[in-house]
């Protein structure tokens, strides 16, 4: 079964923890400096609050799956939805080790498909460098990812860093 992922940027993590704990009727399941995550079953969501310097509000959305088969299915859906899928692959970010890919919806909002294998105590290095991200066409063929200054930056697909961290993802 999949779980919706919502990541929001907040001005103060302590205020956010208090607010969302009351809203969800549950304390966060992961708390780190500037970061809190709720893994809820009702509603089934992975909700993250990140304290940061970015614009406050929804940062990105995603779908978290529970196994490799689910991840493959999500990747197929991303490829059906967009000509520009960004395969991040295995990464450590947001206090977790995961494998993920990204697309951008028509409104410019980043979506990630991911499978988390481990919760960690460090934020991690986050998304890979743009040169290492693989783009695939609708037909599943690997294509070159633009790296010039004129090309759309990876941040279009992978969220930008939060304060004191090297990357802002889930």
UniProtKB/TrEMBL annotation:
Enzyme class per UniProt: lyase
Family annotation (Pfam families): Glyoxalase
VOC domain mapped to chain residues: 2-116
Record's keyword terms, sorted: Lyase
Enzyme nomenclature, EC number: 4.4.1.5
GO MF assignments: lactoylglutathione lyase activity
Cell wall biogenesis/degradation among keywords: no
Signal sequence extent: none
UniProt-listed GO biological process terms: response to cadmium ion
Top-level taxon: Bacteria
PANTHER family: CADMIUM-INDUCED PROTEIN CADI
Protein name: Lactoylglutathione lyase @ Cadmium-induced protein CadI
